[in-house]
Amino acid sequence: ALAILLTCLVPGGHNQTPRALQESAVPSEVLSREQAYSLVQPSLLQDAKVSNLSESLPRSSSSEPPLLPVCAKPADIRHVFKYINTIVSCTIFIVGIIGNSTLLRIIYKNKCMRNGPNVLIASLALGDLLYILIALPINVYKLLAKDWPFGVQVCKLVPFIQKASVGITVLSLCALSIDRYRAVASWSRIQGIGIPMWKAVEVVLIWAVALVLAVPEAIAFDMVELSYWEQHLWVCMLASEQKSSFMMFYRDVKDWWLFGFYFCLPLVCTGIFYTLMSCEMLSKRNGMRIALNDHMKRRREVAKTVFCLVVIFALCWLPLHLSRILKKTIYDQTDPNRCELLSFLLVMDYFGINMASLNSCINPVALYFVSRKFKNCFQSCLCCWCQRPALSITPTDEKGSVGKWKATGQELGLDRSSSRLSNKYSSS
């Protein structure tokens, strides 16, 4: 996938630089702060020619410092990349809407699925659904368009939703890791069906903390006017000038804050508590009663599911954070070879943004393949939706209707035996 993006984005080899990253086309304050979740339109600066760029450069006097050298062969973003990105985003949108909505319906409708871990998974799915509905369409538009027509309110809302969604995911994964350790540590306590009150309070706290941590993002983003080919365009981006010292500090350390809290925290938390959980299981393995073997197997399956979600999160977000850290550490504006590096970093940036968006729709798919219980529930739920038109074409007499319902229930596995089977696989 990275090779395809390289072909689409850098059509002239390593000596070309994307025009969206040229210091001569945009103020240097803009380029020095290409933050994660930035809403600056890449197509804004892709059609200018080198001659026009050189003519538009201000003349420097002997007392002023010399301007940075201009990249001789700027590379445009090909339209094929826009089409590929749009297709990928539409696929993520469709799969994410269906998968997360089905996951929420399964947990809401089935009493056997209402437990502590699943309410955290439902919270994670709701956060992903919020991001897919609001932020993803805006991200597609800002790649295809130049100007920002949605106003300052939407400009602040979209990065706020993006950051809040990631915060909900991070804190939910940490809570799931802690919950799995507690479940194994208290192996003799068999939890019944239902959501404990403290678990509901935990979900509320997760959302509250995620929303509070996303407030600086809404404050930092603003509409900025840029001059481009004798046009005055308004773009939504991280403003270079902030009104308070705290926001100036946030702007400077944002990349490291994103990498530390929104990426490393769930990995460290999972590593610590899964190590403790493994030690706990090894120490109590010989003393376990045989009657609890099936119960412990179900808890291990849930632990495996949570670990899979954390691994998927790490794989989806690693490219984006890696490109930001490389931009922060090894990029030097005075280096004459910076153009080649910026070309590579832009490719990594777009690839990382698509991978990060993929995380919003892939969790239901992962649950389908990892958890037998979720797989059975997904199949039953999707089959019910597919069979719903057939149920409406039933005979009008009472006996025929009853017979049709019974037959359909047996075909879909909704009879009493399947209900007992689903209760058998219910986990704590």
TrEMBL record:
The record's annotation in InterPro entries points to: Endthln_rcpt (IPR000499), ETB_rcpt (IPR001112), GPCR_endothelin_rcpt (IPR051193), GPCR_Rhodpsn (IPR000276), GPCR_Rhodpsn_7TM (IPR017452)
Q: How does it sit in the membrane?
A: Multi-pass membrane protein
Could you tell me the Gene Ontology terms of the biological process aspect for this record?
developmental pigmentation; enteric nervous system development; regulation of blood pressure; vasoconstriction
Record field: transmembrane: 83-107, 119-140, 160-179, 200-221, 256-282, 302-322, 342-370
A Pfam family cross-referenced in the UniProt record is 7tm_1
- What are the alphabetically sorted keywords of the record? Cell membrane, Disulfide bond, G-protein coupled receptor, Lipoprotein, Membrane, Palmitate, Receptor, Transducer, Transmembrane, Transmembrane helix
Q: Which GO terms describe its cellular component?
A: plasma membrane
Q: Which GO terms describe its molecular function?
A: endothelin receptor activity
Q: Does the keyword Protease apply?
A: no
Q: Which family does this protein fall into?
A: Belongs to the G-protein coupled receptor 1 family.
Instruction: Spell out the protein name for this chain.
Output: EDNRB protein
